[in-house]
Design a protein that fits this description.
Blueprint lengths: L3 H16 L1 H8 L61 E2 L6 E2 L7 E5 H7 L14 E6 L2 E9 L15 E5 L2 E3 L12 E8 L13 E7 L8 E9 L3 E12 L3 E12 L4 E2 L9 E13 L4 E14 L5 E4 L12 H6 L10 E2 L8 E16 L2 E15 L13 E2 L8 H7 L9 E17 L4 E28 L5 H7 L2 H8 L2 E28 L8 E30 L2 E6 L6 E22 L4 E12 L30 E14 L4 E20 L7 E23 L2 E17 L19 E14 L2 E12 L20 E14 L4 E10 L7 E5 L7 E5 L4 E10 L1
Parallel strand pairs: 6-9, 13-17
Antiparallel strand pairs: 1-2, 3-8, 4-5, 6-7, 8-9, 10-11, 10-38, 11-12, 12-14, 14-15, 15-18, 16-37, 18-19, 19-21, 20-22, 21-22, 22-23, 23-24, 24-25, 24-26, 26-27, 27-28, 28-29, 29-30, 30-31, 31-32, 32-33, 33-34, 34-35, 35-38, 36-37
């Protein structure tokens, strides 16, 4: 309840300003309805042919307009002549409406049409469409994404650690990457901002930002879109969107989504099949044009995904040192299937349980247009409930070698729990509130464009496995008994020798919570002086950030040796790991980030820019750290959980070109950059463990690269594009506990040196009844090095280079009634059926390399009906 006053204070501020709009009109010398002649909201027939120099229209209501005018098509007339120039792309990367060509940021932007052509359903599909961006699933949470831009991201997915790439939906920051691998019901535009965004996007954007913009309701008239997709592996998707205006000032929109798909690896054991998934989504939007100047947008969304995680397939047997797991490594290897090729089937030892993610949220956006400035408030609440079940065993279905959290009934469970331990599916819950107030506009005859504001964010989260549950259990090869006896005290070793059929069993009880607060003040201004024919643009940005991080950790981990003595089950407790009994940790951080940009228009269609940008990622805590603090017994690293880690900082320099040539038929955008990272947050696995990690600020790194985006309107019917990225990512310094520089063991894990996407969009036939269109792409991603624990294990988690072919053939705009159109399309992805891994790990007891494979060839049919 304490957050509600902030929510209403922001609302009241804008409503009060709206109430005094008439007084402000008199002060500014313009009538209240002066904007009605040019507003596309109030005049549905208005469609600007080009973007004005500066506009304060709501960011999500600005159309993408062609550079040339064309008469409106009717059902009885031939299609209008195709544009002789590339369409202008509108973005809101700088929190104001602007042309992509006038925005000094390296951006990949996707319109609604391009989203449909490529088949982008959500964030998870962007990795194959944006060079220098890679997206991988988290190993035990297939609905959690690890997003990297220019090689910068985070490998782990903890509530206490923030991602380095910020994701925003209609301006609302999404703090957790859990649940991002889900379809978005009704996307209108996607913007991928490459490189640090430290002033306007200050929430942990040292890698970049992703803006998802959904389609808002319109008062222009009733409209609806229905899409049905059928594909192989029992793929079915239905999506509907209905826009209903109520008078001239109010409109509602309802979007629904449902889909199912089978996985591509069968589970021959008990439970569900790996990869099977079912999703549903709902989004309700309302837009109220309260006055000529005040627009209120409300959105509620809810999505639910149910699926079965994939099992890692073993590729290489375990030849490296597995630490404590050496005791059962031979048995684990004997119960594992190995293959360098993708297998069609594996088997879970315990019944494979379903995972599920439920997300819902509310957002309110109030936009008050008081030309020459605009006041905007964005308030949001989001809630996440995520349940993740994983099976990391060898794939043979052996009940005697298990790595899962399913129920366990044995002598060890009786000793530890008084009876069988239950099935426990780890659950992550999170609630977040955010409030943002923006003031933007222009001054001095539009020579100065500015945006400034305040931001407030809070979240509470919990990872709950707060019941004693099974973690692993395994039989022991007879040859290993001697090694286990030698590692135990004499009395325990003698007891072990009396056991028949000895087994190792580990139980855990985990529970950790977070409470985070963040606040910021930000501003950015661009000055265009009269000198040099207004070709020079100088931009300065500043953001002050404050972060408070709290975490509480509970963890118990106990290992037993169980077996039979004279036919009676018994269990011997071994030494326990350090116990965390609700250990609290708390830290505060602050940061000041600056941005400087100098841009110059060489001509009306060619401009260059240079920029210097700072950004930071908040510090936090590592809940996988096995030590409480620096004084913990056996801690050789000098720090523990409560010590946490400090923020990470980056200073980035960039030179860019935005240009159009050949009468705007050829677009060439390019940039080179040099980014220096300091106090890098290094996550590393403790050698000899399966999941214990350390995080410290031990690194300095430098990132250099080149990005080139080209689009060529070869003919009025053929558009060719080629986007390329080169990346030279080097970690220069990482100091170990002894002060040695071991940077070679900590490469950027997901930084391909080369990546590119080439595409062809060909309108093969265009008649009054519709058009026949083909769209084909090839995307290539170079090798990614992966994590390195020791020099001997280098390359075990690398992802080799691969390229994928995708294509879509569609008949579009087919007449279906007086105001309806129908699109029919066939599509295929990974047409060459390339076999490639998308994630690899080297820390399983049974394997030095185990992988999750990428999606095999898929194909389907789309039917899309639109009514306007």
């Amino acid at each position: 309840m304490r957050r509600w006053p902030i929510f209403w204070m922001g609302t009241a501020l804008i409503l009060c300003a709206s109430a005094h709009a008439q007084d402000l009109d008199a002060l500014l010398g313009e009538p209240l309805n002066a904007s009605s002649e040019s507003s596309t909201d109030s005049n549905p027939d208005a469609a600007p042919a080009s973007l004005p120099a500066s506009t304060n229209a709501p960011l999500d209501s600005v159309p993408v307009a062609p550079l040339t005018d064309a008469p409106e098509a009717t059902s009885d007339a031939p299609p209008p002549p195709r544009s002789a120039a590339l369409e202008e792309i509108i973005v809101t990367a700088e929190r104001r409406v602007a042309s992509l060509q006038d925005t000094p940021i390296s951006i990949e932007a996707f319109s609604a049409e391009k989203i449909e052509q490529i088949g982008i359903q959500g964030v998870q599909d962007l990795g194959v469409s944006v060079p220098s961006m890679t997206i991988e699933p988290f190993p035990t949470h297939n609905a959690t994404l690890r997003i990297f831009i220019r090689g910068v991201g985070i490998n782990d997915a903890q509530l206490t650690q923030d991602p380095a790439v910020g994701v925003y939906v209609d301006g609302v920051y999404i703090a957790r990457s859990v649940g991002l691998a889900m379809d978005i019901a009704d996307l209108e535009r996607i913007e991928v901002l490459r490189g640090p965004q430290g002033t306007l996007y200050g929430r942990n954007t040292t890698g970049g930002a992703v803006n998802l913009i959904t389609r808002r309701p319109s008062v222009d008239g009733f409209a609806m879109t229905h899409k049905l997709t059928l594909g192989n592996r029992n793929y079915w998707l239905g999506r509907s969107s209905i826009n209903v205006p109520v008078g001239d000032t109010l409109a509602f929109k309802l979007a629904l989504l449902g889909s199912t798909r089978d996985g591509y690896v069968d589970n021959t054991g008990e439970g569900g099949n790996f990869g099977d998934r079912k999703e549903t989504g709902l989004r309700f939007d309302a837009r109220w044009l309260a006055t000529e100047r005040l627009t209120a947008d409300y959105a509620y969304d809810r999505s639910r995904s149910e699926y079965y995680n994939y099992m890692f397939q073993a590729v290489l047997p375990p030849n490296s040192d597995k630490g404590d797991a050496e005791l059962f490594k031979p048995y684990a290897q004997a119960n594992t299937i190995y293959s360098h090729r993708r297998l069609d089937a594996l088997a879970s030892g315990a019944p494979m349980e379903a995972s599920g993610t439920t997300i819902h949220g509310h957002a309110l956006t109030l936009t008050l247009d008081l030309e020459p400035f605009e006041l905007k408030y964005i308030g949001a609440f989001r809630e996440l409930d995520d349940k993740q079940y994983a099976d990391l065993a060898g794939g043979t279905g052996s009940p005697d070698y298990r790595l899962d959290s399913n129920a366990y009934d044995g002598p060890a469970a009786t000793v530890a729990n008084g009876g069988p331990t239950p099935l426990v599916i780890p659950t992550v819950t999170q609630q977040q509130w955010s409030h943002e107030l923006q003031l933007s506009g222009h001054l001095f005859d539009e020579q100065l464009d500015y945006v400034m504001g305040a931001y407030l964010f809070s979240e509470h989260g919990r990872e709950d496995r707060h019941r004693l549950n099974h973690q692993f259990s395994t039989a022991i090869e007879p040859a290993q008994i001697g090694a286990l006896v030698a590692a135990l005290p004499a009395d325990l070793g003698n007891q072990l020798l009396t056991l028949a059929g000895p087994r190792l069993v580990n139980f855990v009880d985990l529970d950790w919570t977070i409470d985070n607060r963040a606040s910021a003040l930000f501003s950015q201004a661009t000055w265009t002086p009269d000198a040099l024919d207004q070709r020079l643009h100088l931009t300065v940005g500043y953001r002050h950030s404050e972060d408070e991080r709290k975490a509480v950790k509970f963890r118990v981990s106990d290992t037993y040796v169980e077996g039979q003595v004279a036919g009676i089950g018994t269990a011997i407790p071994l030494s326990s790991a350090e116990k965390f009994d609700n250990v609290p940790a708390r830290k505060r951080f602050s940061d000041d980030a600056f941005a400087y940009v100098l841009a110059y228009d060489l001509s009306d269609s060619v401009n260059i820019y240079g920029k210097s940008v700072e950004a930071y990622k908040s510090g936090g805590f590592n809940v996988r750290d096995p030590n409480i603090d620096a004084n913990s017994q056996g801690n050789t690293y000098g720090f523990g959980f409560v010590d946490g880690f400090a923020p990470e900082h980056v200073q980035s320099y960039e030179l860019g070109l935005k240009s159009e040539w050949l009468e705007r038929r050829l677009r060439i955008n390019a940039d080179v950059f040099d980014s220096a990272y300091r106090d890098m947050q290094i996550n590393f696995l403790i050698p000899g463990t399966i999941s214990d990690t350390k995080t410290e600020n031990a690194g300095r790194a430098r990132m250099r690269g080149l990005e080139l985006d080209t689009t060529w309107l070869a003919t009025s019917a053929l558009i060719l594009s080629a986007n390329y990225a080169y990346l030279d990512a080097r970690v220069e310094e990482v100091r170990d506990a002894d002060g040695n520089n071991v940077a070679e063991l900590y490469p950027f894990t997901s930084a391909p040196r080369y990546s590119f996407v080439v595409a062809a969009d060909w309108t093969m036939l265009e008649r009054d009844w519709g058009a026949l269109r083909a769209y084909a792409t090839y995307n290539y991603i170079d090798e990614r090095e992966g994590t390195v624990i020791t020099e001997e294990r280098r390359g075990l988690t690398s992802i080799p280079a691969y390229g994928l072919f995708n294509a879509r053939l569609s008949a579009t705009d087919l007449h279906a009634g007086n105001r309806g159109t129908l699109d029919i399309a066939v599509w295929g992805r990974n047409l060459a059926d390339k076999v490639y891994p998308i994630a690899a790990i080297d820390n399983l007891p049974q394997a030095d390399r185990a992988v999750i494979w990428g999606e095999p060839r898929s194909f389907g049919l789309d039917l899309i009906y639109r009514y306007r």
